Amino acid sequence: MHDLGPAAREMTRLVNGVREDQLGDPTPCTRYTLGDLLQHVRGLAEAFTVAGLKEQPAGGSKPPPQGDASLLPNNWRGETADWLGRLAETWSDPAAWEDTAWIAGFEAPASAVGITAANELVVHGWDVARASGQQLILDDTALAPSREFVEMISGPGSEEARGDAFGPALPVRVGASALDEVVAGNGRDPAWAVEGAA
Question: How many CA atoms are closer than 13 Å to the CA of 31, on its beta-carbon side?
């Protein structure tokens, strides 16, 4: 099992650092504005919490809808922080990592679901940071599950595992940081920046 606490707390810090006037700004997720992405983050925090509790939402587990800024609650910072805290607490229980869990409409080994949750926090944390002019700060231990995730969806025959959610893995420069390797492994350009940013 892994500790999702550092990535969840870092995501909370980044979400709290987003200004209201930035919600319409672009992000590395080409289909999402920053507001869309934040609504997606709030939704994934809830979904992975429910998965770690070995529960299913009312009506059963379903693929997640696209992020939609119009669905952000008024207290989006507080509500997102609350779900991120619950997510970290749920996955701190070894039982969350055992057997199977339901996420996005399918049942999978719980350990893989936990690693996926960790990767979502890291990569979308990077997305939020880049789009809002902040910096994602995580050590190698916090990045370890994301590196495992990249290995799971990389290599020959992994195209189906990548699905539509991840672009092809991108090359990284020699000596790239662990974070750049994770970002590139998820199909994002580590050099992405808001147009006009330094």
Answer: 9
Count Cβ atoms below 10 Å from residue 136 Cβ, excluding itself: 23
Residues facing residue 157 across a β-bridge: none
- 163 within 8 A of 106, measured Cβ to Cβ: no
3-state SS, residue 110: helix
Residue 67, token pair as written in the block:
């992020």
For residue 158, pLDDT beyond 80: no
Per DSSP, 64 falls in state: P
pLDDT at 87 over 50: yes
Model confidence at 167: pLDDT above 80: no
Between 162 and 84, the higher pLDDT residue: 84
Of the candidates 96, 120, 117, the residue with the CA atom closest to the CA atom of residue 48? 117
Dist. CA 15–CA 32, nearest whole Å: 15
Contact 27, 127 (CB under 8 A): yes
Residue 194 to residue 198: CA distance in whole angstroms: 9
3-state secondary structure of 26: strand
Binned at pLDDT 50, 70 and 90, residue 198 comes out as: very low
Task: Tell me the CA distances in angstroms from 61 to 37, 57, 106, 108, 196, one per residue in order.
Answer: 21, 6, 7, 12, 41
